[in-house]
Amino acid sequence: MIRAYKFLMRPTVGQTITLGEMLRDHCSLYNGALQERRDAWRHVSKTSVKYGQQSAQLKEIRAFDPDRQGRWSFSSQQATLRRLDKAFAAFFRRVKSGEAPGYPRFRGVSWFDTVDFPKDGDGCRWDATPHDRVTRVRFQGVGHVKVNQHRPVVGRVKTVSVKREGKHWYVVLTTEQPRPEPLSPTGSVVGIDMGVASFLTTSSGEHVANPRHGRKAAAILKAAQQALARFPRVRRDKRTANHQRAVTKVAGLHRKVRRQRLDHAHKTALGLVREHDFIAHEDLKICNMSKTPAPKPDPEAPGGFLPNGGAAKAGLNRSISDAGWGVFLTILHAKAESAGREVIAVDPRNTSRTCPECGHVAAENRPTQEKFHCVSCGHQAHTDTVGALNVLRAGLVRRDAQPA
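-> structure tokens emitted (404 positions)
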């Protein structure tokens, strides 16, 4: 199986400048390749330029500009061109499927934050035997950079990536390793119902509180963004040091909330995987759930619109994004696979309206957000617990129906 490791790097001042130049030059290569594709399609009879054609030009580009493009790894530049090719492949896939296409855009220097090295030993080298208790990674054109390796790397390193997050630099490794031994069976099964009031509720009635990291940091973040908005919009090379400090502060606050959300997701998913052999959850369409409501034209007033609940829906959308359901489910599936647990997603429709005692389905079974009261048999319970029970039953039925 493939596993990723992310470690903090501690470059010197000179290495930090050189790493920034590496990102800048790869960004320039990405934008130049994108411009070539746009020009070929618009001005040369709608000709499509492929990755193979652009990769074949790399040798000439490196010879023409040895001070910028020629100093970096050839393989890393090929990986940058592959990234652009994947962006176009995703664009054409969305066009064919009728989705919002999203044409690939030019990247600013601050938006281009990752350089990939497809193979360890080709333009980069992960030092598996640290000297003087210090681990280092070597990059072509940069040198040996110290790494804060907080845990051992298991398996053979396949790819290496450099990533910038604010003022910090990270190295991301992917390794190929044998599948770990599964955890001992517990004989326990569980269904989970995810929500906004509670982050999740299990079929046994246990509630995991929603930490609401984004809401807690909203006041500080609002003040930082207002301070940033006071600076005039000027070119990047004309910005003052105060403007850059304001940008860094806003980015740091967003990064802190993201790390808090990831930490909560990891700990919650780990607890579920350790305690249960089988986990069922709702197959939520989060993008559809957080869409902005469509406007309602007023037939009596041309050019006017009727109230559509957009303000209330905006608050709900912020709560959904703050909960981070998608990140949590991704982590849950990854941890379950490593631990030998089974996770199944089920259809969430009517899970909170179906009585777990008699099976009666009605919207009236849920008189309030938290209360469930069956109009047929009189069963009463917490709505989220009822939803988790129905999710568990649907998951067990789907598991038993799968061919062995």
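The two ends are 23 Å apart (CA to CA).
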